[in-house]
Amino acid sequence: MKEKLIVIGNGMSGLRTIEDLLELDKEKYDITVYGEEPYVNYNRIMLSYLLSGEKSFEDTIINHQTWYDENDITLHKGDKVIEIDKNSKTVTSQNGKIQSYDKLLIATGSKPFIPNTFGSNLENVIAFRTKQDSDTILELIDKNKTAVVVGGGLLGLEAAYGIAMHGIKTILVHRSGSILSQQLDATGGKLLQQNLERYGIEFKLNTTVTEIFGDGKVEKVNFSDGTLVDSNIVVFATGITPNTSLAKEAKLNCNKGVVVDDFLKTSDDSIFAIGECVEHSGNTYGLVAPLYEQAKILAKVLADKKTGGYSGSTLSTRLKISGVDLFSAGDYLGDETTETLILLDEKVGIYKKLVIYDNKIIGMVLYGETADASWYLKLLKEETDISDLRTKILFGKSALGDSGHGGDDVNSMSDDEEVCGCNGVCKGDIVTAIQTKDLKSLNDVKTCTKAGASCGSCLGLVEQILVNTLGDEYDAVEEGICACTTLGHKEIKSAIDNGEFKTVYDVFKALDWKTEDGCVKCRPAINYYLLVKYNDDKYKNDKRSALVNDRVFANIQKDGTYSVVPRIWGGLTSPQELKDIADIAVKYDVPTVKFTGGQRLDMLGIKKEQLEPMWKDLNDCGFVSGQAYAKGLRTVKTCVGNTWCRFGTQDSMGMGVIIEKLTWGSWTPHKFKIAVSGCPRNCAEATIKDLGVIGVDSGWEIHIAGNGGIKVRVTDLLCKVETDEELLEYVKAFMQFYREDAYYLERTAHWVERVGLQYVKDVMLDKQKINFYAKRFEESQKHAQVDPWAKAIEDGFTKEFSPIVLNPEESHSFEAKEN
Questions:
Q1: Where would I find the beta strands (DSSP E) of 416-523?
Q2: For 324-370, what is each residue's pLDDT tens digit?
Q3: Distance from C-alpha of 24 to C-alpha of 21, rounded to nearest angstrom
Q4: Predicted model pTM
Q5: For 65, 475, 545, 605, which has the most beta carbons within 10 A of its beta carbon?
């Protein structure tokens, strides 16, 4: 006869224990689960996506009702256990059920902490912890009111982000000087704050809420800095406390949490506990990864399998907030006895910090680039001496070997290297599951191994392992490009190619978009695909679907000013052009003028109202926009070639100017960079550009799909040509093929890695196809080579740049009259 196992709590840790238990022994227990919430088991990590509208509740469900039914698990939804009787070994529920157990698992989680602030008992003062909280917030937020979020930890940031995504003015209040201080140091917190400010979130740091006013409901909020705001909702995300009330009433040993031993057993031999309600060796855990480690141990204990017990967790956090990857582990702050190795690029948004003690990593913070997180964590856990790695370690694992080819080399990962921190899944687990269980898709792996099924930040690495293990058998099923649709880029491109559409709204309607207006992810993509199909003469480029840089034809900077970059053809200029730029820079008091890596001059710190007159002055001097902001051609970099260099074999300067004048104004899926080197010494760095041209004695080499960013990718050689005419045909054909075949925001490097070099060569080495794509490029360029600065002035578009100043004495009163 089966033993009776009752689980109090239908959350992530308790149900993960049951999942792991069923893997070990399906027949041992008759299982009953009591859940206080009226839902099946869902993923709390995804609540922010639910709040922002990027995911539906269906997307967050971990175990559907069918799973409970298939495993003969009785689920009592919306029925809270209110009493445990240790002597009779029974539990009593709120609905009056009394049920006996042989073994009991307490997984009651935690309770949100709302500080005792004046007015905190008003209506519309809520926590952010459950689906119901998310639903309540969505019901209350109002575009005419300010939402206040208290707490700069993970939940607070997720709540603020989710609210702000609805266009609501949102203020986040945090008593510390930097956000996410339990996971990031001050530098990482600052970078994340700058990123979140782009969504309209206002941060009040070193500040608290002192009073909340209202007649029954929230109406105003007073802050410790003296400011007062009108508000109709205050969301507290100021921490959690283990939910021990039931355990305490049952006279189980409790301190901060329900005290358990290494086998997750409480002070009663028949009662176990797990998750956020638990205290083990004086520690409580609020992150999912340690809870899943506990679940794995407890499942073995319940199945009577041998286990060494739970010895605590190395706290590591892998998060994705507003599209930014974060990872931290260990002692990431350090002290006077430690060293720190730091890589920081604020403009790109990359920050890496390794804390070193006795030549061993003891802590880390990774912001914006977390591909090597599992490798760093492995070095930390194994206490590896990094003396020989110090000069290269910040650049990642690839820097130790073949650093010329970007991407994560999954072949170099050991089988015990962790891939999914949330679920404790290593590379070997994934490979074994793929090979033994015939897994073909990313969804198969998520379902079977749980890798990538929680926060999702490791999905890229999981997919690489899939591709590496299966090769051509990999079933690359796409997910929707955003929360507005379930369709991926491939399906959308196909639908647009095979249909007729005049606007982005026509596409939304035809493809059953979930939203009327789309979002910042899908609108620019649809706009681009329509441009590709029709060219700008047959389809009006929808500026409302463009990102801010593309709307104002300048790059916005972190202080809200802009940078203006005139085009310098092939990096070749003249004394008169330099004088003109200098005069204009002096006229507008430009704070910074910088030589760029693309051989141009970047004028930084331009105010929005200065853009129109500066553009006009540049136009009058013969300059056009360098389009340093564009998803299109940026620069054509050159060396001096055989005009001056004694090693030069070809006229790289002349060819660079010709190519730039041929391709400027073009639009492509992502930014596109070209370089022309006059000899194989490659001074123009052509082998890390989207299109690289290198002069040789017999003509030109054409290289493609390079990338010189944080993940360097050396180009692939496409072919050699003998004449300038042939070279220009290839340039036109390659750009057109890329713009039509690649996905929006896919660089050439990623495109070629996705479709394969041979796929590109099959087209680019076919004379008929080269001619076809070259002619299409020429046609599109007839309508594209219009200077956007001059056109914006001509169309009156720049009127929006002027500040609005009203003189009450000169204003007129207008009233509507019936005809």
A1: 418-420, 425-426
A2: 677 888 888 888 899 999 998 887 788 899 999 999 999 988 888 87
A3: 5
A4: 0.53
A5: 545
